[in-house]
């Protein structure tokens, strides 16, 4: 991945670097997003205790010690999921990725991690459409579309790192997941996205009456990822 | 009386005659739309509808003073209003004729079926906004209809806050054109096929706003990864999660068995012939160790520590192999001439000599009364030691010296290995050809061992240029596992109490290696001798391995020591006896 280590150290804020970042292709940006998804899933599985601690190993990523599952089954599962997710992300078909943690005992959705992806070009288009309709579209899609600002790889990494720190820190306010839990991944894909057999339509698995906390955002020139966690309030 | 339904319906009927409410109705489609997105939306809508109904009533020129008075504060008066309306309805029916609006009455009566109040009013403004062009055909008819019909419809729709309402509503709309009665039917018309109205801009906006509020994007599909996530291997206590050492504790090492790496006893074995192809060491079930040293066979009693010379062969010959019978009473001795002698150890007498091989007998294996012998010529003979004509079978599967020969414990199979790098597995019922011939080894195969806990599992080890240990399924002939041990494998022995086996090696390390099976984890590696280990034998209690090497040492290793509190008292007798015996320093010779 282009954003990896040695470059960023060299980079800092030199204009030359800025140029290079500017050239970070849409594809590269999408790859970054897809990779981010994968690490997010692993992080959530670890932090929320969906799988036992011993199943995870430390890898260095984004300048952090990230924990990724070393369990063969879990790895295979995520890999399979990611293979499709990568395609969709590269094709710009994904608008949200949601990781839902569900109680095994009651089947209740306890926690919902939502990553909103905005493709900058797309957002602009959506806004235009909304304008044509003669109505300001209040949806988050069109609302936030700052002019694509050039960011250095270092800045991008820093943003991602901050987000992961926040995810890690969020276990302090999230309720304890007492029951045995499992997880599910939802993707909000465009209507025209190709859907393989493993994927099927689903409801949004919203947390009924849940609390929502917005976490940091990060983005490249082409993508912007907003993170939101909603969880069931304890009685 | 058709009054049983809720009074609200009647109220709706009352309203119907008035034009203003009708117009409002028009916008129903929109509010279907708003409902579509989510359930919560529909609830909201329903709630609003409640208010609306009240409002509409208020607007409608109601004959009854109470309703008329209510208009301003809809919400506050909502409930009372309905009640009042109900009352008024009663009044109407009662005074039906007097009012003179017979159609109204009728409608009211029919409307009673529909247990709903009017809601459409609320949408009046939007209705105006929706131009005929943008609205669907469905919408248009609605705008035209008589007040009466429209009145019923909205009522019906409001009654059910469920998404299904949409269709109901539309049905009602259609009905309105034809007849007022139709409206009542429309309630049941859910199934009626209805084309979706093209959403007008406002409805779109509304949709999107609702969608946004619910976090749903209408242009997208929500897809779930269908396969269930793998089960977690064990229940998780999050509390341990935050107390985690950065590096996981080496759990494997923790549970690894401790194995003594020092020999328990060392005996001298002078004159041991340094020949890989011979088998000069064996440990009997009676706890006696027989070892062939040049022309002599010595028996060392592990219990008493005494040693005795059993025999001495004629000059110019040497002992090439020794093997105890299963009961530990007899020892078979192979001689370099090709003769095989059977000795009674207790009496120290030779029982018989069996001559059949033309070349030295390097390896032997007992199966009850049958002794199999492998010779330098590559031939394997089976001898029945009880009968005069002892040779009962010839097994021709090797072209070069046979150095490994091992009967399976149940006597159903015989494994043989030779200098031709072959492993042959023979079925005892048909000895004409080997059941399996394995060519994987790249050097002579001397080390052969049948697994004691899985009968059809055979381990075989190859010589210098091979250094591999292969594991075979003797039923299917498949190779089930392999280890590259890296040096000549001279002997293999399975533990009887652990899921382990030990291999003896030659240069460069002359080591003993204990492996876990089937994990093939190297549990321990002991540099055992100064020269290559030639032979090994396992004690009858399975705890101790005897090894001898060309450094002329016979060493005893307690590799498979029984667990401290372990069972196996049946063997403890011999074990302790042996211990006593071993406490005395003994040298052979």
TrEMBL record, chain A:
KW Cell division (keyword) present: yes
UniProt KW keywords: Cell cycle, Cell division, Mitosis, Nucleus
Spans annotated as Disordered: 1-20, 130-153
Transmembrane segments: none
Pfam families named in the record: HORMA (PF02301)
PROSITE patterns: HORMA
Family per record: Belongs to the MAD2 family.
Protein name, as recorded: Mitotic spindle checkpoint component mad2
Originating gene: MAD2
TrEMBL record, chain B:
Gene3D superfamilies membership: YVTN repeat-like/Quinoprotein amine dehydrogenase (2.130.10.10)
Repeat positions for WD: 312-353, 395-430, 526-559
Compositionally biased tracts (Low complexity): 125-136
Pfam families linked to this entry: WD40_CDC20-Fz
Family matches, as InterPro entries: Cdc20/Fizzy, WD40/YVTN_repeat-like_dom_sf, WD40_CDC20-Fz, WD40_repeat_CS, WD40_repeat_dom_sf, WD40_rpt
Region of interest (Disordered), ranges: 1-41, 53-77, 94-200, 565-589
Domain CDC20/Fizzy WD40: start-end pairs: 267-557
PROSITE patterns: WD_REPEATS_1, WD_REPEATS_2, WD_REPEATS_REGION
Biased composition (Basic and acidic residues): 26-37
Keywords, alphabetical: Cell cycle, Cell division, Mitosis, Repeat, WD repeat
Polar residues compositional bias, start-end: 67-77, 144-159
Keyword RNA-binding: no
Highest taxon of the lineage: Eukaryota
PANTHER family: CELL DIVISION CYCLE 20 CDC20 FIZZY -RELATED (PTHR19918), FI02843P (PTHR19918:SF8)
Family assignment from sequence similarity: Belongs to the WD repeat CDC20/Fizzy family.
Protein name: WD repeat-containing protein slp1
Gene expressing this chain: slp1_1
């Amino acid at each position: 991945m282009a954003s990896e280590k040695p470059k960023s150290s060299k980079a800092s804020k030199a204009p030359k670097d800025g140029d290079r970042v500017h050239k970070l292709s849409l594809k590269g940006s999408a790859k970054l997003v897809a990779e981010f998804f994968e690490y997010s899933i692993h992080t959530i599985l670890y932090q929320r205790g969906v799988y036992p601690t011993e199943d995870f190993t430390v890898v260095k990523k984004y300048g952090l010690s990230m924990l990724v599952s070393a369990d063969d089954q879990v790895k295979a599962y995520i890999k399979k999921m990611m293979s499709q997710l990568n395609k969709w992300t590269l094709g710009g078909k994904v608008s949200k990725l949601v990781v839902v943690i569900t109680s095994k005992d009651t089947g209740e959705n306890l926690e919902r991690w939502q990553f909103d992806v905005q493709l900058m070009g797309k957002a602009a288009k959506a806004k235009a459409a909304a304008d044509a309709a003669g109505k300001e579209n209040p949806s988050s899609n069109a609302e936030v579309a700052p002019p694509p600002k050039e960011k250095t790889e270092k800045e991008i990494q820093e943003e991602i790192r901050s987000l992961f720190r926040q995810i890690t820190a969020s276990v302090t306010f999230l309720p304890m997941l007492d029951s045995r839990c499992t997880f599910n991944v939802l993707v909000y894909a465009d209507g025209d996205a190709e859907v393989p057999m493993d994927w099927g339509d689903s409801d949004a698995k919203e947390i009924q009456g849940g609390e929502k906390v917005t976490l940091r955002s990060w983005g490249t020139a082409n993508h912007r990822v907003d993170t939101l966690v909603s969880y069931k309030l304890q009685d | 009386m058709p009054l049983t339904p809720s009074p609200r319906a009647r109220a709706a009927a009352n309203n119907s005659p008035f034009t203003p409410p009708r117009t409002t109705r028009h916008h129903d489609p929109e509010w279907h739309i708003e409902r579509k997105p989510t359930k919560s939306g529909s609830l909201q809508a329903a709630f609003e509808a409640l208010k609306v109904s009240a409002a509409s009533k208020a607007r409608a020129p109601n004959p009854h003073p109470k309703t008329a008075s209510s208009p301003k504060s809809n919400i506050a008066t909502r409930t009372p209003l309905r009640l009042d309306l109900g009352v008024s309805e009663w009044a109407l029916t009662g005074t039906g004729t007097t009012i003179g609006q017979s159609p109204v009455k009728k409608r009211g009566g029919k409307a009673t079926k529909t247990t709903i109040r009017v809601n459409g009013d609320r949408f009046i403004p939007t209705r105006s906004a929706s131009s005929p062009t943008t609205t669907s055909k469905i919408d248009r008819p609605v705008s035209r209809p008589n007040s009466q019909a429209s009145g019923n419809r909205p009522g019906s729709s409001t009654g059910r806050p469920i998404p299904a309402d949409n269709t109901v509503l539309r049905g009602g709309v259609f009905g309105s054109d034809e007849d007022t009665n139709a409206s009542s039917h429309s309630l049941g018309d859910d199934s009626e096929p209805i084309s979706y109205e093209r959403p007008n801009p406002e409805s779109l906006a509304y949709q999107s706003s609702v969608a946004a509020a619910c976090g749903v994007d209408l242009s997208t599909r929500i897809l779930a990864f269908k396969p269930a996530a793998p089960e977690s291997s064990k229940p998780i206590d999050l509390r341990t999660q935050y107390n985690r050492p950065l590096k996981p504790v080496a759990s494997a090492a923790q549970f690894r068995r401790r194995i003594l790496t020092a020999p328990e006893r060392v005996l001298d074995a002078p004159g041991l012939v340094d020949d890989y192809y011979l088998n000069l060491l064996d440990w009997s079930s009676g706890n006696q160790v027989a070892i062939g040293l040049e022309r002599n066979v010595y028996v060392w009693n592990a219990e008493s520590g005494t040693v005795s010379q059993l025999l001495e062969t004629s000059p110019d010959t040497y002992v090439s192999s020794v093997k105890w019978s299963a009961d530990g009473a007899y020892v078979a001795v192979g001689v370099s001439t090709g003769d095989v002698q059977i000795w009674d150890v207790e009496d120290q007498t030779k029982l018989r000599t069996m001559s059949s091989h033309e070349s030295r007998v390097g390896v032997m294996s007992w199966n009850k009364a049958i002794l199999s012998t492998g010779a330098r010529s590559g031939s394997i003979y089976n001898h029945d030691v009880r009968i005069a004509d002892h040779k009962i079978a010839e097994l021709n599967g090797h072209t070069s010296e046979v150095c490994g020969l091992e009967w399976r414990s149940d006597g159903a199979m015989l494994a043989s290995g030779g200098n031709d790098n072959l492993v042959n597995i023979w079925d005892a019922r048909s000895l004409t050809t080997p059941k399996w011939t394995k060519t994987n080894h790249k050097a002579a195969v001397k080390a052969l061992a049948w697994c004691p806990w899985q009968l059809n599992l055979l381990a075989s080890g190859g010589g210098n240029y091979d250094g591999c240990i292969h594991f075979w399924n003797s039923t299917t002939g498949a190779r089930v596992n392999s280890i590259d041990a890296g040096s000549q494998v001279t002997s293999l022995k399975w533990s009887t109490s652990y899921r382990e086996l030990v291999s003896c090696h030659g240069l460069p390390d002359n080591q003993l290696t204990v492996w876990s099976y089937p994990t093939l984890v190297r549990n321990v590696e002991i540099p055992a001798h100064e020269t290559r280990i030639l032979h090994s034998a396992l004690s009858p209690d399975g705890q101790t391995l005897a090894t001898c090497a060309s450094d002329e040492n016979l060493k005893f290793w307690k590799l498979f020591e029984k667990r401290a509190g372990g069972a196996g008292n049946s063997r403890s007798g011999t074990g302790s006896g042996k211990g006593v015996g071993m406490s005395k320093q003994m040298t052979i010779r």
